[in-house]
Structure formats: C-alpha cells, structure tokens
Amino acid sequence: MTYGIVIRYRFDSSWLRLSRAERNQYGEIFRKDVVGPYADRLTVRHFDAEAFAADYSDFLLIETDDLRAYYHFVEGLRDSDLIARGWARIHDITIGVPDGYKEYERDHV
Predict the structure, then answer these.
(1) Distance between CA atoms of 17 and 33, rounded to whole angstroms?
(2) Can you give 11-39 as a three-state secondary structure string?
(3) CA-to-CA distance for 32 and 24, rounded, in angstroms?
(4) CATH number of 3-108
(5) Is-above-0.85 flag for pTM?
(6) Is the distance from CB of 10 to CB of 87 less than 8 angstroms?
(7) Which 8-state DSSP code applies to residue 69?
(8) For residue range 1-44, what is the model confidence (pLDDT) as tens digits?
(9) Distance of alpha carbon 99 from alpha carbon 15, whole angstroms
C-alpha cells in the first residue's frame, strides 16, 4: 500500500536571517544527508506555502510504501540542523492512502 504524507512546518526568523547562500548550502546538505539515505524508498517533494497559508510556511509531500523508512526519515529530520537549531518547527503531519475506499470495497464488498 502506498501512503501519502504531508509534513507542514514553519521556518523561524532565525532561518530567514541566514543569507540566501547559507540557506541554499544547507538545502543541499539536507537533501544529501536527510533525504538521500531514503531516496530509494521515499519520494520527497518540497512546497512553499507562505503566500497561501498563515499557520505554516512550507510543506513536504512524501509518498512511500515503506512506513519504517518514513519513520527513520522523520527521526533524521528531527535530528537535523533544520529542527535542532530551531530554524523550522513542524506544524502537523497528515497521512493517508490514495483512494483507500476502493481497496476496501475490493476486499469487503
């Protein structure tokens, strides 16, 4: 079963005080060190949302059929400078399955 996961988060002003070059450099490190080890099991996409939402500034859209890999990814995310230095704070996490009702109907109706 494939899962869709949305992790909404807000960047802190301490992140915004970094230069764009520093933020871009950290973004590369994040992709390599936090996302990279799971790239074969997770699809991770980043979206900016500050122009469209007040509670969070960005979100990750993740797809996977491996919840263990996802869990380990989140542990790595929490250990990363992004969270540990307070640059970002997770707002909420939502998980679902695409068209889950169809699988239910196939198995139970």
Answers:
(1) 23
(2) ECHHHHCCCHHHHHHHHHHHHHHHHHHHC
(3) 12
(4) 3.30.70.1030
(5) yes
(6) no
(7) H
(8) 999 999 999 999 999 999 999 999 999 999 999 999 999 999 99
(9) 37
What's the rounded Cα separation, in Å, for the pair 22 and 95? 31
DSSP per-residue codes, the chain: --EEEEEEEEE-HHHHTS-HHHHHHHHHHHIIIIIGGGTTTEEEEEEE-TTT-SS-SEEEEEEES-HHHHHHHHHHHHHSHHHHTTSEEEEEEEEE-TTHHHHHHHHH-
Which own/partner contact pairs does 17-22 have at CB distance under 8 Å and 24+ positions apart? 18/87
Rounded to whole angstroms, the Cα distance separating 65 from 50 reads 29
What is the token pair recorded at 31?
Answer: 């992709």
Q: What are the residue ranges spanned by the domains of the chain?
A: 3-108
